[in-house]
From TrEMBL:
Membrane topology according to the record: Multi-pass membrane protein
Domain of life: Bacteria
Protein's recorded name: Cytochrome ubiquinol oxidase subunit I
Family, per entry: Belongs to the cytochrome ubiquinol oxidase subunit 1 family.
InterPro entries in the record: Cyt-d_ubiquinol_oxidase_su_1
MF terms (GO), sorted A to Z: electron transfer activity; heme binding; metal ion binding; oxidoreductase activity, acting on diphenols and related substances as donors, oxygen as acceptor
Annotated TM spans: 12-34, 54-76, 96-115, 127-150, 186-205, 217-235, 314-337, 349-371, 399-422
Length: 434
């Protein structure tokens, strides 16, 4: 394997592992803030116990997320020096704002929340976790603005052999980046909703603190349902933006080979990239693809040189699985709310909710596969190819060594994370005060 492939593999592994922690942090911070606010508003100590119980799980996840995120930024200088040289003037700005504004705010107020119990007023304490939730989601905004620019570069000129920013506002308001932010953050909220649903289901199956976990389950189900519906709505807008700015990605997502007017969408489809066709096309819904893409004519992959087409099968399958899981989340969350009054007796549903905890994580990873693999062979779409972005001074053996090291280190962190989350999730909340 060459340096480009090894560097891509290393970044994919470290980014995917980091994104195990990010989505739960995005959503669980909001849920903990809501639970504590309910305690402040009602005086119901069950909500205080909820805030402390789910807050402990949030802190475990947050700490490991910070550790795993640090290595990503180093890779831009180590493995992707040509990329950093070419677009660093633009890409570095939102990342610098994220570090100096959002992460600073997040780190400061999470300290206040951890050590402020019984030291500041309940209202100020609840405010501190809301500020953590705001900063956490604001941090995602700046990172996704940077990624959105890679997907659809705007506000730049090519000068002195590199891209230089000329319109910061255009970069910040890039529709691709804002839609990507909304889609990614909402998917994180789904992760958190099903995390609360699954752990609540675990305790309800064991008849442990039934009323407490019924309250938590209702909060998680409502949050998951609303977030799932919003993800579908934002996804529709995002598909139209992809159609406008990344026609090769859209064609790969739907395995469309021929340019088509009023393009149908096939519910059953098997790509055959080797022969530039589909081996199976069945149950086509007339014009649906054109309607969803917001364009009458959809360009097929044959319109583009083979060297500029993304890998079709993995992009197509990842997209279809992500969408299918999205509809499943709506069904499960709605089912949980409809069965809420007798949920403690709905054994089958509770088991489904428990075993569904990993599914939103999988859906989020699939979304990133669609976004990043579907952009290939470009690292900045239409501007800089991935093969031209890798560091020239790095040898394959060096990347292999760091890849093995990162994989072992991250594997150990993953085991620690699962162990700690499982331990404290099974333990349950603090006992009621007598």
């Amino acid at each position: 394997m060459d340096t480009v492939l090894l560097s891509r593999l290393q970044f994919a592994i470290t980014a995917a592992f980091h994104f195990i922690f990010v989505p739960l942090t995005l959503g669980l911070s909001i849920l903990v803030a809501y639970m504590e606010s309910r305690y402040v508003a009602t005086g119901d100590r069950d909500y205080l116990r909820m805030a402390k119980f789910w807050g402990k799980l949030f802190l475990i996840n947050f700490a490991l997320g910070v550790v795993t995120g640090i290595t990503l930024e180093f890779q831009f200088g180590m493995n992707w020096a040509e990329y950093s040289r070419y677009v660093g003037d633009i890409f570095g700005s939102p990342l610098a704002i994220e570090a100096t504004l959002a992460f600073f705010l997040e780190s400061t107020f999470i300290g206040v929340w951890i050590f402020g119990w019984n030291r500041i007023s309940p209202k100020l304490h609840a405010l501190s976790i809301w500020l953590v939730a705001l900063a956490t989601n604001l941090s995602a905004l700046w990172i996704l603005i940077a990624n959105g620019w890679m997907q659809h570069p705007v506000g730049y000129v090519l000068r002195n052999g590199r891209a230089e920013m000329v319109d910061f506002w255009a970069v910040v308001t890039n529709p691709y980046g804002l839609l990507k932010f909304a889609h990614t953050v909402l998917s994180g909220w789904i992760v958190a909703g099903f995390f609360v649903l699954g752990i609540s289901a675990y305790h309800l199956l064991r008849k442990n603190e039934t009323e407490f976990f019924k309250k938590a389950l209702k909060i998680g189900a409502t949050f998951a349902l609303v977030s799932s519906i919003l993800v579908a709505a934002v996804g529709d807008f995002h598909a139209k933006e992809v159609s406008r700015t990344q026609p090769t990605k859209l064609a790969a997502m739907e395995s469309l080979w021929e340019t088509t007017n009023d393009a149908p969408m096939y519910l059953i489809l098997v790509p055959d990239p080797k022969n530039e066709r589909n081996a199976v096309e069945a149950i086509g819904i007339p014009s649906l693809l054109s309607i969803l893409a917001g364009q009458k004519e959809i360009k097929g992959l044959k319109e583009f040189p083979p060297s500029e087409r993304p890998p079709v099968t993995i992009t197509f399958l990842s997209f279809r699985l992500m969408v299918g899981l999205g509809f499943l989340f709506i069904i499960l969350a709605l089912w949980a709310l409809l069965k809420f009054k007798t949920i403690e007796n709905a054994t089958t549903l509770l088991r489904l909710l428990l075993w569904s905890i990993p599914l939103p994580y999988i859906a989020a990873q699939l979304g990133w596969i669609v976004a990043e693999v579907g952009r290939q062979p470009w690292i900045v779409y239409g501007l800089l190819k991935t093969a031209d972005a890798v560091s020239k001074a790095v040898e394959p053996a060096q990347v292999v060594a760091s890849l093995v090291g990162f994989t072992l280190f991250y594997g150990a962190l993953g085991i620690i994370d699962i162990y700690l989350l499982a331990k404290y999730a099974r333990k349950g909340p603090e006992p009621k005060e007598v």
